[in-house]
Design brief:
This protein has 9 helices and 13 strands. By secondary structure, the protein is an alpha+beta fold. The protein has 2 domains: 115 residues, no CATH class; 144 residues, no CATH class. β12 and β13 form a beta hairpin. α1 packs antiparallel against α3, α4 packs antiparallel against α5 and α5 crosses α8. The longest helix has 35 residues. It is globular. The protein starts with a helix and ends in a 27-residue tail after the last helix.
């Protein structure tokens, strides 16, 4: 297939032949070709999936490069404007300090809101230098449990908004395809879900910043979230089982912000995030090291059958993660000689 340079030459020829193509900005069109070339390179490298077609109403946006300082101006404390090719000056809400960047991206989400994001790599957050280690166990009921005993939960829609979301989804199912009523229902649902997404992103930003400032080493489970949230529908020849229950679990996992929290931690604390094998971390006693499935009494209770040590199940798993204890399928420790050793954590009680 032709590369980026050849596609740019073809774009020049196409713009000379078609007037509707010349109306758009050549810079924006070239950046779309560059994004496509990068996506194909990631696909052939095996790190990403094959790129798909953009969908109207979902993948709305474009990127502008060669941004000059005069193209971004501040009008007031909360208002600024940016120069958009073929559109002129466009005002935006000045929500934070605009860094020195050479490009920006304008996008539109499903709820109809337009956003402008300036590309910049922020400076990493320095650690406290105390040598403190923390383990994070991610779950559905509790989004993140820390080895210090703290329980963090990603914000979700309240009961009233959940009932409203259910009513809107039922109206959407009865609406005729292509009708104005269906468009209004989809927009109202998108606005409710956008509120939940914004709150989850805000929670992940604040939680990751707090963890990066308090601890020098952050250990998390090495989870394959993409495989865990894969559909159980199956095929016609081999249909899946309990598809409805699995889809509900997938939504609960995605609402907990597992991947977002870890990715922001890796961005803010590069080199200080360690991924630990999650095998048997929820069945191992953090006090004596005994491994037994019977010790996990419920989702929230861990009671060791060997030493009768009782603790919150998620906190117990987080302490195993913080100590770096990962066992093999045979139940043997990955670190020989450490099975009965107490976790060396600065903030764990004796």
């Amino acid at each position: 297939m032709p590369g980026y340079a050849e596609q740019c030459r073809q774009l020049t020829v196409a713009r000379a032949e078609h007037a509707w193509l010349r109306v758009g900005s050549q810079m924006v069109q070239q950046q779309a070709l560059r994004d496509f070339a990068q996506a194909m390179a990631y696909f052939f490298a095996g790190t990403h999936r094959q790129p798909s077609w953009r969908k109207a109403g979902r993948d709305e946006g474009f990127r502008v490069v060669a941004l000059r300082p005069r193209q971004v101006q501040r009008l007031s404390r909360k208002t600024g404007q940016v120069w958009v090719p073929k559109a002129g000056w466009v005002r935006f809400r000045w929500s934070r300090a605009v860094p020195a960047s050479k490009s920006y991206r304008v996008t539109r989400d499903r709820s109809g809101r337009w956003h402008v994001a300036f590309a910049a790599i922020p400076e990493p957050i320095p650690g406290p230098g105390t040598g403190m280690v923390v383990g994070i166990d991610r779950g559905v009921a509790i989004s993140a449990a820390l080895s210090t005993g703290e329980l963090l939960t990603a914000p979700r829609l309240g009961p009233a908004r959940q009932r409203r979301l259910g009513r809107l989804q039922r109206r959407l199912a009865r609406a005729k395809r292509g009708s104005g009523r269906r468009i209004r229902m989809k927009l109202a649902i998108a606005r409710l879900k956008a509120r939940e997404t914004d709150a989850r992103k805000d929670w992940a930003e604040k939680a990751s910043t707090d963890l990066a400032r308090r601890f020098d080493v952050i250990r998390v489970e090495n989870l394959k979230i993409g495989n865990m949230t894969r559909s159980a529908r199956g095929t016609i020849e081999a249909p899946g089982r309990k598809v409805t229950q699995k889809s509900g679990l997938n939504r609960a996992i995605l609402r907990s912000g597992w991947g977002l929290l870890v990715s922001r931690l890796e961005d803010k604390a590069p080199g200080r995030v360690e991924k630990i094998d999650a095998a048997f971390t929820s069945q191992r006693c953090s006090a004596c090291g005994h491994i037994a499935a019977e010790s996990r009494k419920s989702q929230a209770l861990f009671a060791c059958v060997a030493c009768s040590y009782t603790l919150n199940a998620d906190v117990n798993a987080a302490r195993n993660i913080a100590a770096g204890h990962a066992v093999t399928a045979r139940g043997r420790p990955s670190f020989p000689g450490r099975l009965n050793r107490e976790p060396q954590l600065a903030l764990l009680p004796a």
